Description:
The chain is α/β, with parallel strands linked by helices. The protein has 20 helices and seven strands.
Amino acid sequence: MRTLTRVVTAAAAVVAYVALVLAITAGLDLRASLDFRDAPAQHAAFLAALDRGDAAQAREVRIWFGRHSSDARSSRASISLAAGSAEDGDFALARKFVRDLPDAIAEDQAALDRESARTWGRAWPWLVCGAVLVAAAVVLRHRRKAANAEAVALVNRFVPKRPAWRRPVFAVVSGIGYLLMVAGFLGVVAVTRAQDVPWGVRGIMLVSGLVALVVAYFVLRYSRPRSTRTAAQTLASDWRAPVLYLRGFDDDRGAAVVDDLLGALPSGLLTIHSREEQLVSALGAFGPVVAVGQPGERLPHLGAARFYLPGDDWQDGVLALMGMSQLIVLRLGEGEGLWWEVEQARATQPPGKLVLLVPGQHDGLTDRLDALLPSPTGLADVRTEQWTSAVVVFDKGWRPRVRRVGPFPGEKNRHGTPAFHVARAIQAALEDVGTKRRALGIRTNRGMLAVFGKVALVVPAFVLVVLLARLVLGD
């Protein structure tokens, strides 16, 4: 169903775009045909101007024909020659040039009518097909919203109210920021590779690119947290059962780090997304990712969609979402509330649901975890400087299966971000217990790839806006 929804939605978007372009083009042709019906009246006005010896009026008629008929139209050629003669004072010659103008006007009108009929004939099949696909996409989206209705109803109780205008407005602002970022990035990359460009031009390109990147940074830093979906909106947009991301609130600072991607400029790569955003992109292979937000935070952290439980009565909400979730990803930490969540997941959920992320410096956390399990994880003495050192999943008997985080032996891509290697470890660990999802590591950079894809859509969107403006405002 998910693949069908995506295919139908993508097809609907493409067909609807083509249909709109063809329909607007057909509308322009129809308007040209209707406007040219005034040509006989313009011809009569031209003859009257010749009778009066009014060269200025004759010139205005020539301008009208210039606007309403193409260079190839015989009527435009005749009126241009006649108006030229009138401006030279030879009104007799001007009358000779427009002697056959009524026939030319009739031919041009028939040609415009045929062109209008042709373009509408091309547009109608696309419009019908687009309407059918859009209706199918709407039905599938409605079914998708209904799939998580229970989780949406639960989470919606704990989602702060926002002004209806905020997300659309800041989504547009973020789009402007992304345009600046991609333009600046491509400019800087071009400078590094354009060896034959003069140094002065390269300097201007470099400065312009860097300025665009700086401006984009501040625009996106301000707008992105304000344009995020709420947890309820995230759940309603996906028919799959959610992924519940649990962690101590102290971990949010480390998860908000944007790691450098080594060799980014020479490779044509870029990331502005935090560790949590990248991890959530990978976990999106399973379903929409939601998390409990820290009470009182002014803006949500970027990554998992936040909802906010009451500080003195949060356990029931977490337990309910544990039951609704298909996967529980829990990052170990010091808080007693976090260990209550570990114990509840161990007591109430199937073992295949739980994925534990072990911090690089865990200071005895694995000893406490081992006390809850039938066999030890073997990570008690492992200490690393990494954001996450290991991933732990469980087989049917709650026996731990451990995958250490880091480049795999012999792996060529040793310079991925920390979230990339965590995602790869999650993929490998889950495969050990029979749950398969491919390309989790690659999906960590899906957000940046989506940015480039959206920016690429600016060109067809601009074409559509220009055509629509021509139709509404005229040439």
